[in-house]
Each structure stands twice: as structure tokens, then as C-alpha cells.
Amino acid sequence: MTTTDTSSAAAGVRRSVVTDARDAVALVKDGMTVAIGGFINASHPMTLVRELIRQRRRDLAIVGAASAGLEMDILIASGCARKVITPYVGAEGLGAIGPMFRAMAQRGELEAVELDEAMYYAGLRAAAQCLPFNPWRAGLGTSLPRGEPVAGGVQRSDRGETLLAVPAINIDVALLHASISDKFGNVQHNGTGFGDRAIAAAADTVVVSVERVVSTEQIRQNPAATSIAGADHVVVAPYGAHPFGSDGHYGPDIAHIRGYVEAATTFLKTGRRDSVDEYLDRFVYGATDDVDYLERIGLRQLLSLGEY
User: Fold this and answer.
1) Are 82 and 109 in contact (CB under 8 A)?
2) Which of 121, 117, 118, 137 lies closest to 129 in space, CA to CA?
3) Is the model's pLDDT at 129 over the cut of 90?
4) Rounded to a whole number, what is the largest CA-CA distance in the chain?
5) Rounded Cα–Cα distance for residues 258 and 207 (Å)
6) Among 204, 214, 206, 203, which Cα is nearest to 236's?
7) What are phi and psi of 268, to 5 degrees?
8) 204: exposed, middle or buried (C-beta count within 10 Å: 0-12, 13-18, 19+)?
9) What is the pLDDT of residues 150-172, one digit of tens each?
């Protein structure tokens, strides 16, 4: 760098990390390990998930939330996912198990990693600490230690105690959704943020879609609420979790979720993809971007999604 360089970096000016969904998702390459935040029917980064599908990424290992929702199912239906690492995929009362997850796993066309929530977080913790594994007691005496890759091997402690060596869940890119951020990537969730903090800590690159970008002054009014400091990329995405809820903004679109479950269940029961492909064509591939997607949902429907 020369002394005449007047770029923002040279001048010591902080750089905005706000970008659009296309550019953010372009960071994901075929074969990567990608994590999707949220929890069952809430706070999944669906603007980013739909863009990931539109960009037709393949051979991905998808790390879901500790209790993942049908965002995983949609990624499986689209052919993006080669492997799924999560303790659960479903929509609770709207769909106990993701239909596409179940169907493709039963067919042997999807690798589903067996682990419980404790092992899931142990794997994320190991990745966050740049360790090859995390020692853990739970699961001893079960078949989990014979599984691969999350619960492989054992480690003896200095007390002669046998422990599981839970390998790190290393994440290339994490895709998350939150309430607000400033333009420098200081993110604040409403509510708990579920497991998004642990996912972010385990990831090499963190992309967060948010309902709104706000001033840094607003973030500084309550710095303790900052759940992820310095995300690598921020995407402004109003209604970006739809059809799932976004805490403090809107609830899940129950009718839409049920419509997807019905379409995917048709494939589970009959092996025919017509209904699920119609869903993908209408709400993912057929939409040029997420503004187009929201127009397909309709303003009246979106405004009906009060949180309570």
C-alpha cells in the first residue's frame, strides 16, 4: 500500500458488510458444509435458502439447527443436499418428520448423520475452539459411538474414564436470520437466537439476513443484546424467514407450511414428484428474487401473520 492510497481501508474507515442475497450466497460452492440457523418453525434464513436453490448448488453437507425445520426438507427436495447433520428435521404438529428427509433417507439417497442435541453442540464447540473433537460422556453404552462421522471413537481421560470423542462440526458458511444489524455486521436477535451463536462460532464465514438494518447508535443503546458481533455479510431481507416466523416481527405461515408438507408427503407416499416440483417451480425457481417471492405470497397474506 502506498502513502497516496485514499481507499477506505487505508483511511481506517470501517467497511459496510451489507450485500445482496445473490452475492452472499455465491460464496457457497458445491461440496461445502453449510449451516442453516433458526429453530423448527422460526427464524430460518429462507431468502438465502431460496437463493441457494436458485443457484443450483449441489453435493452440500447441510448442518441444521439442533431442531431443524422444513428448510432442510426443501433443500433436500431441490437436490442441494448430499448429507444432513442435525438431530431433528420436522415441523412439530404440522409435520412430525420432514417428508422429503424421510423419503430420501429411506431410499438411501441422502446421508443422515445420527446424533443427539448434546453431541451436536459438542461438535460445534470443538469447531469453534479449532479442536479435532470434544470429549463427551453422553451416549456411552449405546450404538452412537459406532456411528460416523459425528460420534466416532473414544478418548480415555487421565482418570481412566472412557469418553466419547465427538468430532468437530466444521462449517464453511453459516446462513442465519435475525431481527436487526448495523451495516458493520453487529447482529441482534429477538428472543433467544436459538443455537445461532454456536453455529456462527463454528463457521468460517457468517452470512446473516435481517429484517432491518439500523444505525450503529441503535445497536449501541443495548450492546448486551448483540448476539453476533461482526458477521461477515449482512443481507436486508424483510419477511426473510417466511414461511417461518421471525421473532418479534411475524409468526409462521401455517397454511403455506401445510401446503408444502402436503406436496412433499405425496412424494413420500407415491414416489411422484409432481406436487413438490410444482411448489419449487412456483415459489423458488419461478421467482426471480425474494421480492418476486413475496409478491407471489401476497401482501394481504403477509400482513395477516401477526406474531400472536
Assistant:
1) no
2) 121
3) yes
4) 68
5) 28
6) 214
7) -55, -40
8) middle
9) 556 676 777 778 888 899 999 99
